[in-house]
Specification:
The protein folds into 3 domains: 58 residues, no CATH class; 111 residues, Glutaredoxin, CATH 3.40.30; 100 residues, no CATH class. The protein is built from 15 helices and 5 strands. The radius of gyration is 20 Å and the shape is globular. The longest helix has 22 residues. By secondary structure, it is an alpha/beta fold.
Length: 314
């Protein structure tokens, strides 16, 4: 409502039109976003932000411009690829299975928004071209993303099949959290996505709390306690992503700590989940949950948990 008032008060300021169009896209209201972009471009036809949003809106509406593609519709996703039919079937099964498990463990979204698009690109170059302007600079070297703006899961076909499956499970959790919680603090968004990406064993049985040995090796390489838990919890998104070689493993380990160690730690997870579900902002929710916690004791217990995991998996 505040943004709509700014647009009404300053109808010729295209920055407000662009910001409102972005918000509408994040809400999934593409027709309203298109209308707002058109109004803004009527005021300033060469506005770079509005032109970029128009390009992203086309992606959200139409997807990649592949000349030939394969499509598989599942329970939760419509998967499309410029690879073969077998590839699309495998990824559709993985994505559907992951979303089904997340709903079973964390709850079904209260409002159904239909099936989500998932696009599997044959190569890295076409993937990178498509996510330009969608992902931040730190994400553009990744193997996949979920775009809250486009409401699409985007991955490319790396040769490591198990690695690809892990990426799909990670990004599907981002998609799930977008539907259930909206915005989440980076430690929770990435930590829980990494936790869930590791939560399936090689025999195909779903098991929560899988161990990411690569993350444990990061602590052995770079050292323990480079950050405190308090620093991790209150770190802004841009700083979190800029230090992702350490913050991702630490966020995964902290979520693992909350979900697998004690009822008291699980209560912290449930508390922040409940606040985010109630649409309290990410930073405010984090402050509310942890403001009365003895952070020195929590930090000590967390790093003891990490050390124990390292020793168990050497």
């Amino acid at each position: 409502a505040k943004l709509e008032k700014l647009v009404a008060d300053e109808p010729n300021d295209t920055a407000f039109h662009a910001e409102l169009a972005s918000v509408l896209m994040l809400r999934g209201d593409l027709p309203a976003a298109k209308s707002r972009i058109d109004v803004g471009l009527g005021i300033s036809p060469n506005d770079a932000d509005l032109l970029d949003l128009r390009s992203q809106l086309a992606k959200a509406s139409q997807g990649p411009s592949w000349r030939k593609s394969q499509r598989e519709e599942g329970v939760h996703f419509v998967v499309e690829t410029d690879l073969d039919k077998r590839a699309v079937r495998v990824i559709a099964r993985v994505a559907d299975e992951a979303m089904g498990q997340y709903e079973q463990v964390f709850g079904v979204p209260s409002d159904s928004q239909g099936k989500l698009p998932l696009f599997l690109f044959a190569g890295e170059s076409s993937y990178k071209a498509y996510i330009q302007g969608v992902a931040d600079a730190n994400a553009e070297s990744t193997l996949g993303i979920f775009s809250p703006l486009l409401k699409q899961v985007l991955v490319w076909n790396q040769s490591d099949r198990q690695g690809l499956i892990r990426v799909v499970r990670h990004e599907v959790m981002h998609a799930y959290m977008d539907r259930v919680l909206g915005f989440s603090p980076p430690w929770l968004a990435e930590g829980l996505s990494e936790f869930c990406a590791e939560s399936k064993d090689e025999e195909g049985q779903w098991q929560a709390g899988g161990i990411c040995v690569d993350h444990l090796r990061v602590f052995e390489t770079y050292g323990l306690q480079k950050l405190s838990v308090d620093q991790l919890l209150h770190m802004p998104q841009e700083h979190f992503m800029a230090n992702s070689n350490y913050t991702y493993p630490m966020a995964w380990a902290f979520v693992h700590f909350l979900l697998t160690t004690s009822p008291g730690n699980r209560a912290h997870f449930d508390a922040i989940w409940g606040r985010l579900k109630g649409r309290i902002g990410p930073m405010a929710a984090t402050r509310e949950v942890f403001q009365s916690v003895d952070m020195a004791a929590l930090d000590k217990a967390f790093w003891e948990h990490v050390i124990a995991l390292i020793q168990q998996h050497r």
